[in-house]
Amino acid sequence: MSTYVLRYFPLKARAETCRALLSYNDSEYSDEAPVWPQDKVNQPVGQLPVLIETDESGNVFELSESLAIEHYLAAKHGLLVNGTPQDSARQDELRHQLVDIFNYAPRHRFTVEEARPSIKERFETQVQFFIKYHENHLKNNGSNGHYFGNEITYMDVALVATLRSINDFGNQCLSGMSDFFTPEKAPLINKVVEVVSADPKMAKYLSK
């Protein structure tokens, strides 16, 4: 069985879905926080996260880019949607929309003060489109607490991890970010959180 090192900052941010997938799959892994920016030159493309996998034979596989890491881990453990090319495209679309929403947090934090009101306004507009679109998709899947079918897939895990990031790092960067995802405003999104969080395989991740 492979072992993994996930190299990232000690934050609930871009690598959070990677952590959730590793935990959900009960993979043997450890977090590694590099010294930054000194260790920047030691990364494959000068940024984080980076996944380092060592298999039973000692072969090492390094992979960068958070979405590439997620897709690899989900594929390796059978969590990608098993359907048509359209289903796969929809899965990617929904995941990228989660990334787009979360990215308003660091964008708001790491910009100049005078630009922040505009970023917050754009977030508040875009998140309404996001919730409407995802609620409709979940309704069309039967309002059963899953994005696809009747079992947990990559997108379900990604939603739980991203909302956890929004509740933590997101609110630190953009105050009130999580207020848009209450059960009253996003009931079917919250049903996914409820169903996925009840799975015993998520317990290890949620305990951290």
TrEMBL record:
PROSITE patterns: GST_CTER (PS50405), GST_NTER (PS50404). Residues 2-81 form the GST N-terminal domain. Pfam families: GST_C_3. One of its GO terms (biological process) is glutathione metabolic process. It comes from the Eukaryota. Residues 84-208 form the GST C-terminal domain. InterPro entries: Glutathione-S-Trfase_C-like (IPR010987), Glutathione-S-Trfase_C_sf (IPR036282), Glutathione_S-Trfase (IPR040079), Glutathione_S-Trfase_N (IPR004045), GST_C (IPR004046), GST_superfamily (IPR050213), Thioredoxin-like_sf (IPR036249). One of its GO terms (molecular function) is glutathione transferase activity. This is Glutathione S-transferase.
